């Protein structure tokens, strides 16, 4: 998610006081039409979807594995997708209900999960670890805390070009309005979203570095989006094509990792491109899948 884009532009933030920028009806009809009555427990692979519940003011995480254990979290995929895409100021919050095993109603009042997990890498890692602790057979014989066996590909959606536009000298003069508006930007939102995203990257990088498994963690992100490409909702054909070009260029860029001292990403000399790294990951995952299928075929009753 673009830094500063989570809560929309300043014009949107202050200009749509009567309601969200979009009513969300088309998005909702599209998701319901595609996903129908499919539920969280029916996904083809294990997924994790973060949301945030406004009523209880805490994150609510939906996952395939939990949906199989807890019927109250086995919501319609459409409802979860509508909830997690309900970015404040853009779409209305989404309400729906489920029932637990005793028929008791559980209600959800959801908005965009990005407010809690703008970079969901750590969240996904946590849920895989939990599945291992629950001894999911398809993940055996990996140990829950043996992170050297983990392969993580984290794909960011880009951040607006910063150019060090803030400083302590400037920020020391801001009151409430200053933190919410500064020359077309929303400093407070920039701080929250960027801090959330980078802290996860630093945490995971530190972990894999300590385990001497740096090559098992790949983070691909760009922080130089400008103009329309840094917007969340400009869907003209021209802008979509520009975003495709940015993505293609990312594949050609040298693989980079976060410098734990400076917090900035630096190219790793001799490590090849992001595209090379993705091919390597794909080969590793393909080999692992074939091994699991072969093991499954040898088991009685399979």
From TrEMBL:
Family per similarity comment: Belongs to the patatin family.
Full protein name: Patatin
Purpose: Lipolytic acyl hydrolase (LAH).
SUPFAM superfamilies linked: FabD/lysophospholipase-like
Keyword Lipid metabolism: yes
Domain (PNPLA): residue spans on this chain: 1-125
Entry's free-text remark on domains: The nitrogen atoms of the two glycine residues in the GGXR motif define the oxyanion hole, and stabilize the oxyanion that forms during the nucleophilic attack by the catalytic serine during substrate cleavage.
Alphabetized PANTHER family for the sequence: PATATIN, XYLOSE ISOMERASE
GO molecular function, one term: monoacylglycerol lipase activity
Segments crossing the lipid bilayer: none
Class in the EC hierarchy, top level: hydrolase
EC number: 3.1.1.-
The keyword Hydrolase appears for this protein: yes
Motif window: DGA/G: 112-114
Keywords: Hydrolase, Lipid degradation, Lipid metabolism
GO BP term (any one): lipid catabolic process
Top-rank taxon, per record: Eukaryota
Organism: Papaver nudicaule (Iceland poppy)
